Amino acid sequence: MMLSETPKNNKHMPRRLMPSLFFSSSKTLSSSYSFPSSHDSSPSTPRQKFSETMMEENIEIAETIISKWDPSSSSNTKVTSLFDHNRKEANDFLKSVRGLRRAMHFLISENSMSEKLILAQNLMQIAMKRLEKEFYQILSKNRDHLHPESLSGRTSGGSSNSDCEDDVRSEELKIADEAITEVERASAHAMTDLQSIANCMISSGYGKECVKIYKIIRKSIADEGLYRLGIEKFRSSQIHKMNREDLEHMIKKWITATRIAVRRLYSGERVLCDHVFSASKTIRESCFSEITEGAANLFRFPELIAKSKHSLDKIFLLMDLYEAISELWPEIELIFDFQSTSAIRLQALSSLKLGDSIRTILSEFESTIQKDSSRTLVLGGGIHPLTQSAMNYISSLADYNAALSSIIVSNPSPATSLLPESYFESPTANDGPTAAVSVYLAWLTLVLLCKLDSKAELYKDVSLSYLFLANNLHFIVETVRTTNLKHLLGNRWVLKHAKKAKQYASSYESMAWTKVFSSLPAQTSPAITPETAKECFTRFNTAFEEAYRKQTSWVVQDGKLRDELKVSIAKKLVPVYREFYDTHLVMLSGEKNLEFLLRFSPDDLGNYLSDLFMGTSTSGSSTSTSSSSLSQLGGCLPR
């Protein structure tokens, strides 16, 4: 078990690791080491004698404290922890090891035949066994309570200023925050002790022993942490078989688990590893890369999702994954910055290939709108299912502005260059990533509007076509106004298209009520005969009844737009009819069946107009099912 850590090339080896040269694999004096012979030695000087005496005193001091803590002895210290028992004595123990090592260096160079050298090496082996045991006990005892936060802002990756001197540094254990918990206080002590022991063992040539213990214990903790977070190993076939609900649950679970794994589990392991093995970057890298091997599997999940079959409704699950990886990427890059952990970084980076899948789905979404060939009319000219599903989809895309910025900017759609400037007056794609998203979403909206124009042509009644366009454009404008789309498309876009919706409404009104308006003589017309007046009333009754009958079956779902249309029609119709009615009522008072001729009083018109656009005379609002797959997305969009 006790194997020395002998560097293969000591040319660039730090000075503190040089002592490992005088230990063989069994931690005995190396037979290959070239000791100076006695006859080669020059006569000892008084200074040499003084130094040798000091070194021998160091060995005697070390023997006193090290022998006391010999783990193979039968004394109470065999089962007692040195670092838990007496922190000052633990500090003295580490100092004695430092002195012992200095003495061994001196004796090897000055008097390699000294019996004290053999004693010193035996004491060193006992000391290392004790420290190895202490290292294991501290790691095991504190496996669930080593909190990097308890280091109180210490920087990781630094090196020790001295080999084993002041290893249990009292200043490091002073807690600035009086409110620190006992667990954090114990954690701070444990982390400092682990660092002190590791520094001492590494500088004494016993680095492999503590590294092996550290790797075994901390790797089991990291692997157990992933298991508790519910991280599983998936195959592409498993992902492919999942229904949407299961896949959504798994993705949400993965995102939550990965944030914890990166920001607490692996970040904590990196800080702990850097702190404990601050004396050696090579050891830090070796330990951390082995402990975090499971991270490769953790970051493989998004790649499997990217390779699985996708449908339009899955884009938001992919967006969630993409956002999570993008958000964590700077931390991943920092935590796994070692060369030996580059595979983990690359695996995480490959997860961003989800962007390619998202671009493919966006292209399919646009194509689905353009290729929608349904000729089924929405009865009453109401909101088309394609309008509802597409705008819900587009507005949901606007909630992923940051992710879309990255995806679109890295590979912009050439179609957006066709967007006319007169159509889109908000920021252009040259104004940055967010503006690129604005242009792209404006393009998708334009594609929808063009498709709705073709849908409007299917209505035989031109006035109903305009009502259909007014309804659907108003719905689009309101969706933009009340979602994140407003921030992306801009207020100018909203005003421009709201004005266009009013123009459609005005065109509907003009064409739908032309017969009714024209049935009444102009206000400037000269006095007419009773017969002409009767003909006007007859024409008005017929035209109004026809308009009323049709338009009570027509639909305006938005209450505000519905009221605006009714008020506008009433303002144009009721005053003119009232004047004509009041003027000719007396003239026709002697006519038979007057109640049939004057079928509508001016006050009646308002009551009749209030019944318009409710879809009541046929099948209600009747929203027919579109053949487009977009009509199925209503329940699949993020809520």
Brief characterization of the structure:
With 639 residues, this protein is mainly alpha-helical. The protein has helices spanning 46-68, 82-85, 87-110, 115-141, 182-203, 207-228, 236-241, 244-276, 281-291, 295-298, 301-307, 315-335, 342-350, 354-370, 385-398, 401-410, 433-456, 462-481, 485-489, 491-512, 514-518, 530-551, 559-585, 594-597, 602-609.
Give an account of the 3D structure:
It contains 25 helices and no strands. With 639 residues, the chain is mainly alpha-helical. The two termini are 59 Å apart. Helix content is 61%, strand content 0%. The chain is rod-shaped, with a radius of gyration of 43 Å. The chain has four domains: 1-29 and 43-205, no CATH class; 207-370; 377-496 and 625-632, no CATH class; 515-609, Monooxygenase (Up-down Bundle). The protein has helices spanning 46-68, 82-85, 87-110, 115-141, 182-203, 207-228, 236-241, 244-276, 281-291, 295-298, 301-307, 315-335, 342-350, 354-370, 385-398, 401-410, 433-456, 462-481, 485-489, 491-512, 514-518, 530-551, 559-585, 594-597, 602-609.
